[in-house]
Amino acid sequence: MYKTMFGASGFRKGMDLYFQRHDGQAVTCEDFYAAMCDANNAHLPNFLQWYSQAGTPTVKVTSSYDEGSQAFSLKLSQEVPPTPGQPMKEPMFIPVAVGLVDSTGKDMPLTSIYSDGMVQTLSNDGHPIFTTVLQFKKKEEEFIFKNVPERPVPSLLRGYSAPIRLDSDLTESDLYFLLANDSDEFNRWEAGQILARKLMFSLVADFQQQKTLALNTKFVDGLRAILQSTSLDKEFIAKAITLPGQGEIMDMMSIADPDAVHAVRTFIKKELAFQLKDDLLAAVTSNRSSEAYAFDHDSVARRALKNTCLAYLASLNEPDVTELALNEYKSATNMTEQFAALAALSQNPGQVREDALLDFYNKWQQDYLVVSKWFALQATSDIPGNVVNVQKLLAHPAFDMRNPNKVYSLIGGFCGSPVSFHAKDGSGYKFLGEVVLQLDKINPQVASRMVSAFSRWRRYDETRQALAKAQLEMIISANGLSENVYEIALKSLAA
């Protein structure tokens, strides 16, 4: 936020003054704040609330346009929810970076803003300004942009200028427009994520009502346009076409439904792979490289895009695509690409998956960290009946219950799988309950971290609640239980 407000050079000036003043001293947040402000001759009222006030602010934004006066207004209001010990919250100082996009998808030059009875003229040595940072520091404020010739679509919170929750009046068509045109990559990505979340929620409702699932064609077209772009950064494209995770969607539900969320995300992924197959294949082909491994931005971006597209394609589980993924696996010149091809292949149960996993292990078994990744890949898998596979891996020669990192990879990884851990029959919960008791006798600290996977059991339906609660009660009643595990299990039960 300091860098957003003062720019890179202003932030550097603040850092230089900070080190000049405080080198070798014990310092406070206030000292850092003072150095930043003094170096830039600035005063940031109520900015220190960020250090003292708990909770994430929600900023609500409503917009309006007056054609006669060519004025575009943004009304902002903020609220910080009450937290234990802080029932009443003061307004925060929130830097909101804003740009205005015209009907052709271009950024409008910003000339002046009216706020709090004052007009601020925007200038940069005669160069046009396309993004400005609004200093939002009251409970409610209005910012009016002057000389705006048509109604724009606002691009709000550019570059994620403040760690807030944004609630704006942007319509679905505004979001599709920003997804296609915004010059700010963060907002372009965020528009896609908001649309994906909305789509997933509506399809979850359809799934729960046993309706036929159908994908919004505008969403497919939006991702196709990004995939086909030759001007966008490849790493950005990889991130922009990646759907929100199952955990993220379940966190936003009043009653988390792992089955519905998994079914919907799998449906969207396969449908996108089916409808965008040619584009995805083209991306895999054009981003192959036989050159020696290099760790630079272009190489990282190329691998990220290729691997993301390969994972989409492999979800189709069609012979030609499986052959492609196998070929990528065998011809990979580095572990990043080989592991990504293995992950793509391991989405689908069967002999191809088993052979690839065994081959990878035989190749990398001497590398401790790679074997941990290999365990985690299988533990987090969504393939049906994965509890049994993970149970078998406990007996694998490379697994050692006394080694915390191996436990985090296999058991911790399994707890992070919404499908297998939250299996409707309770097999995932039962497995964890048994493992926690075994672990407790070896390493109580690690066992207590594992049992915390039960801490959010009340977020789920009554059947899962009863099954998870039964495991917590079983753990608490065990003989010779460590204090570490007892404390976490008891807290989880009371949560």
UniProtKB/TrEMBL annotation:
InterPro entries: PepN_Ig-like_sf, Peptidase_M1_pepN, Peptidase_M1_pepN_C, Peptidase_M1_pepN_C_sf, Peptidase_M1_pepN_Ig-like, Peptidase_M4/M1_CTD_sf. One of its GO terms (molecular function) is zinc ion binding. Residues 55-168 form the Peptidase M1 alanyl aminopeptidase Ig-like fold domain. Keywords: Aminopeptidase, Hydrolase, Protease. Transmembrane segments: none annotated. Residues 173-494 form the Peptidase M1 alanyl aminopeptidase C-terminal domain. GO terms for cellular component: chloroplast. PANTHER family: PUROMYCIN-SENSITIVE AMINOPEPTIDASE (PTHR46322:SF1). This is Aminopeptidase N. It comes from Aegilops tauschii subsp. strangulata.
